[in-house]
Design brief:
The chain has 20 helices and 8 strands. The structure holds adenosine-5'-triphosphate and magnesium ion.
Length: about 450
């Protein structure tokens, strides 16, 4: 039981403080991104400059984009939000922006009176006949039409309109990236007062834009790293504090470590934790280790299927020894690991498992190599160097760590242990530590 709440008020408040399934939209809930927000703000002050946020899947790109957009967008309207799909084009994006701007203006006030629409060419037509975005998109013949449409959007939407274009990397047609760059250049040249914030999934700009990188010179590019250690635990502390619940340092460090820097995992664990505390008979004021393990267990059950599925594939093999092999791949930090290092982790893990004998090295390495195959979940991919492996989907490592942790297995990389001891004191049980990598180019 958590004092002062019935189920309804608890659920409502919980949704305000943790949101595993949707991006953060407000500055109070966006933790550890002060530097990035500051850079975005400074870039947007500069005329003709727009922003491109990129980083691995799940690090918090949409959250940063939404929060920055909310900060910058004037209060007379909501910012415009476009999600890309494989068949998106510059025309379809502009049409979607236009249709949202028109709808917003209809709803908000009488700005679209006969009088106000007199000067409009493009949107007047769409307003009168309620043209669908698809039909509208067909009317845009080229970039200069698109610029005109955006100019009209800037006139009817709001004082300072902001557009978020999410997941640009999904656009399949490469030429569209060049068109997009052209559009941005022209709206800068023609002084169209709209600010764009783009996001893209990828570790490098090269991965997202390939040969078209130079096309986006006008953009302020922000590489979003995984969350720092203190931001990870601040999410947990902040959420629990809202309910007057204390959490010990040892427990929040563990949450930070298993999350592997992905805010999604922190939100999920804390959400489950708070429900567990709420459903207890007695009044609670502090998180216990048992609560933490129960929350971890429930978080694993609630994890998105695309993350759980590869794990299931890898462990559901005839030989029952894949799970520990899988855990051993998750101990090292960041880029990947050598087979020999993973094997050291494996030995450490097996010393904690009572009822099983460790596999000999050759069998262990063949199991690791199997993890490259689709029928084993395609967990790993080969690195450039011999014997070096990466995760195919980086976010999986957090899930694998959670599984190990829920099975009460400590994953300690010796190197990580040494570093974490210099940094912070942790109780006997802990999982790996890494120092957050500074953004590239600093
Ligand atoms: N800085 C932050 N502070 C607190 N929570 C965050 C932060 N950034 C993201 N989150 C939370 O993490 C989860 C994932 O965030 P988000 O959807 O923004 O990531 P993303 O990088 O856009 O993911 P994807 O690549 O899947 O689109 C969401 O639950 C969001 O609420
Ligand atoms: Mg996103």
């Amino acid at each position: 039981m958590i004092e002062g709440y019935d189920k309804f008020s608890f659920g409502k408040k919980l949704n305000e403080v943790v949101s595993p399934a949707r991006p953060v939209i407000s500055i109070e809930n966006l933790i550890g991104r002060e530097d990035e927000l500051d850079r975005i703000e400074k870039a947007l002050f500069s005329p003709g400059r727009n922003v491109f946020i990129y980083g691995e899947r799940g690090v918090g790109k949409s959250s940063l984009a939404a929060t920055a957009a909310n900060q910058w967008q004037s209060s007379d309207a909501e910012y415009i939000d476009v999600s890309c799909s494989p068949d998106s084009t510059v025309k379809s994006i502009v049409a979607s922006v236009a249709s949202q701007a028109v709808n917003a203006s209809w709803i908000s006030d009488s700005r679209l009176t006969e009088q106000a629409t007199i000067g409009l060419q493009w949107l007047k037509y769409s307003i009168k006949s309620e043209v669908s975005p698809t039909d509208f998109s067909e009317k845009i013949r080229g970039i200069s039409d698109a610029v005109e449409v955006l100019k009209e959007v800037s006139l009817i939407h709001s004082e300072v309109p902001v557009v978020v274009v999410d997941e640009v990397d999904r656009i399949e047609c490469e030429r569209e990236i060049d068109f997009l760059a052209d559009l941005l250049k022209q709206i800068g040249d023609k002084r169209v007062e709209i600010k764009f914030i783009f996001t893209g999934v990828g570790e490098t700009l090269n991965e997202i834009l390939g040969a078209h990188q130079s096309a986006i010179r006008q953009l302020e590019t922000i590489e979003l790293p995984r969350l720092s250690w203190d931001a990870r635990w601040d999410i947990a502390i902040h959420a629990l504090k809202e309910f007057n619940i204390e959490i010990s340092r040892d427990i929040y460090i563990r949450i930070a470590a298993v999350s592997d820097g992905y805010p999604y995992y922190v939100h999920l664990i804390v959400e489950k934790l708070l429900w567990i505390l709420f459903e207890k008979d007695e009044v609670v004021a502090e998180v216990t280790w048992d609560d933490y393990y129960s929350a971890l267990y429930k978080a694993i059950l609630g994890i998105a299927a695309e993350l759980a599925r590869p794990y299931e594939l890898a462990v559901n093999q005839r030989s029952q020894d894949y799970e520990e092999v899988l855990w051993s791949t998750s101990a090292d930090e960041w880029q990947g690991a050598y087979l020999s290092d993973m094997h050291k982790q494996y030995t450490n893990i097996m010393s904690q498992v009572d009822d099983k004998l460790p596999l000999p090295y050759d069998k262990y390495s063949s199991r690791v190599r199997n993890l490259l195959k689709p029928e084993y979940g395609e967990i790993l991919k080969k690195g450039k160097k011999q014997g070096y492996y990466h995760y195919r989907e980086k976010m999986l490592r957090g899930y694998i760590r959670m599984q190990a942790e829920a099975n009460r297995v400590e994953i300690i990389s010796k190197e990580a242990e040494a570093t974490i001891k210099n940094f912070i004191h942790v109780a006997a049980k802990n999982v790996g530590y890494h120092k957050s990598k500074p953004p590239k180019g600093l």
